[in-house]
Automatic annotation (TrEMBL):
<keyword id="KW-0732">Signal</keyword>
<keyword id="KW-0413">Isomerase</keyword>
<dbReference type="InterPro" id="IPR000866">
    <property type="entry name" value="AhpC/TSA"/>
</dbReference>
<keyword id="KW-0676">Redox-active center</keyword>
<feature type="signal peptide">
    <location>
        <begin position="1"/>
        <end position="24"/>
    </location>
</feature>
<protein>
    <submittedName>
        <fullName>Thiol-disulfide isomerase/thioredoxin</fullName>
    </submittedName>
</protein>
<dbReference type="InterPro" id="IPR050553">
    <property type="entry name" value="Thioredoxin_ResA/DsbE_sf"/>
</dbReference>
<dbReference type="InterPro" id="IPR036249">
    <property type="entry name" value="Thioredoxin-like_sf"/>
</dbReference>
<dbReference type="GO" id="GO:0016853">
    <property type="term" value="F:isomerase activity"/>
</dbReference>
<dbReference type="InterPro" id="IPR017937">
    <property type="entry name" value="Thioredoxin_CS"/>
</dbReference>
<dbReference type="Pfam" id="PF00578">
    <property type="entry name" value="AhpC-TSA"/>
</dbReference>
<dbReference type="InterPro" id="IPR013766">
    <property type="entry name" value="Thioredoxin_domain"/>
</dbReference>
<feature type="domain" description="Thioredoxin">
    <location>
        <begin position="23"/>
        <end position="170"/>
    </location>
</feature>
Amino acid sequence: MKRQKHVLRLVLLCITLFSGAIYAQSKTASDLDTITVYDFDAIEPLLYTDSDTIHIVNFWAMWCAPCVKELPILKAYEEKHPNVNVLLVSMDFPENIESDLKPFLKEKGITSKVVMLDDPDANTWIDKIDPNWSGAIPFTIIFNKDKRTFHERAFKNLEDLEQEIHNTLNN
């Protein structure tokens, strides 16, 4: 009986590691072939989870210099922690997806999931996300099923982001 439990644990561990490796390998530039455009009602469910997995949702745009400067930090965190779920919510214009956004992401080596938010009623949806958010970007939500923090600023470096994630999950 004890041996069966150990074997079962080993099998579960292998499955977990294998699925994490598949997830990490599956996140390639081909994921950027389709960038879905959402209104807020459609994107809102992506801002919540029932899991212990760390989720990072970053609102950004190509025209925002602090946002662009922060992208390598988010990329580095995701590479260091392949089980994290990073979602980049572009605030750019939908008509520029093919001509500007996809080439920009390819040039920067971004393989995170990217969606676009195109909802003109910003006064409503910004308050639904966080009533304290002024609407400035970059804006990042760090969360799992139990904890959630909001960051209306760019992260300075990888250590800064790691510290905020640690603070979020351990406070």
